[in-house]
Amino acid sequence: MDSKLIIPDELRFAVTLKCNGACRHCYNLSGKDFDRLSADDFIRIIKEVYELNPNLDRMVLTGGEPMLEKEKVLQITRFARSLGIKVRLVTRGWELNTAVCHELKEAGVTKIQIGLDSSGEINYTDEENQNWDTYHSWLRDDKRAWSKTIHAIKTAVDAGLEVSIRYSLCRSNLKDVVKTYQFVSALGVSKFKFRVLFPDGRAKQRMIHELIKGEEMANAQYDLIQASKANKTMVEITQPCMYSLPHRADLTNNGHEYNVFKEECSCGEVVAYIDAKGDVKYCLFDENPLGNVFKDSFLNVWNSIQAMEARQLRCPLDKSGSNCSSFNILYAQFNDYTNFMNDYIKGTKEKKINIINT
Q1: pLDDT tens for each residue of 254-274
Q2: What is the model's pTM?
Q3: How far is it, in rounded angstroms, from Cα 103 to Cα 269?
Q4: Which pLDDT band holds residue 253 (cuts at 50, 70, 90)?
Q5: Dihedral angle of Cα 302, 307, 312, 315, to the nearest 10 degrees
Q6: Which of 116, 280, 285, 338 is geometrically suited to a Cys-Cys bond with 301, CB 3.0 to 4.6 A?
Q7: What digits encode the pLDDT tens for the residues 68-123?
Q8: What is the phi/psi pair of residue 113, to 5°?
């Protein structure tokens, strides 16, 4: 391998930007058919990277809604499996049934991530005084969204797939975090991934009123950490996170009282994101691409001056394990990010928690 080149160990593909949903918090304005990359195009990128880095061992397929392009997902996954690459699929789950789950599993999908933002115990009334069964359904602008998502989770678990849940923390579901975690744990999911709402894409247009305060995030993270004690479902708290938590490997290998971990963000260097338009991004939440694979090869874009400058500016923050450059950039467009983080840090200190050596 050319030591001068930066070659990712993980690829994240938005295999399609198609989606027939209307999620209010969608970070990339999915919906219309802007796709330019075929399955063969994505496979060429895999080959380009793998030829120089045979340590490429994991991949994420997302969208849009990737299951609207099931055959593309299957073709890419089968090729990845032939190289020993593990594939995680990010989906809303509504297109899943038992047969499809087994088809995905046989092709090589090892994990499925599904978004769920409510426990089902709390109703929601929106600003127009409309009643929804859950905040989750309102977020997705679909009256049956919660029940369809729960059906998908149960179906995938029953099919023997490893299922993780992603929870988007908003002002209106702050009080439902622990209940949702406990609910999905009872369903048999392996991991609960906890992330603050990112004001990007459609969320930038429709969800700014749902942004939370720093101290509220500190409290929600703390409550979830406490709930993970002796729970079989692992919790991942994504950045920003100032609590002293173990890495996943340490959590798994050494044993801890709390079943929770965090990882330094590896975007922009170890992890690369390419969408169905061919845009290459430092992070999937970025609004501006580093370049496009229709204008240059992926590795040339990934090692361009623009990419290098982005790394120099952002990687120190992301590798800190406690902050997030993407959230910083996006949140600062609407509120004072420094004040947010100061309030957050104050909130974490007040909790006085340190479980890394517990």
Answers
A1: 667 899 999 999 999 999 999
A2: 0.95
A3: 32
A4: low
A5: -60
A6: 280
A7: 999 999 999 999 999 999 999 999 999 999 999 999 999 999 999 999 999 999 99
A8: -110, 130
Asked if 6 and 269 count as a contact pair (C-beta separation under 8 A), the reply is yes
Task: Tell me the two tokens of residue 82.
Answer: 């032939």
Give whole-number Cα distances, 298 to 60, 73, 84, 265, 294, in Å: 17, 20, 21, 21, 9
- What 8-state DSSP symbol labels residue 12? E
Query: Who's near 130: CB < 8 A, 6+ residues apart?
Result: none
Mean pLDDT of the chain: 94
Nearest to 41 by CA among 62, 68, 14: 14
Structure tokens at 132: 């929804």
C-beta separation of 184 from 193 below 8 A: no
Residue (of 270, 292, 272, 295) closest to 284 by Cα position = 272
What are the tens digits of pLDDT across the range 185-217? 999 999 999 999 999 999 998 999 999 999 999
Q: Name which of 230, 293, 250 is nearest 43 in CA terms.
A: 293
With residue 312 as reference, give the H or E element that holds it.
Answer: helix 305-318
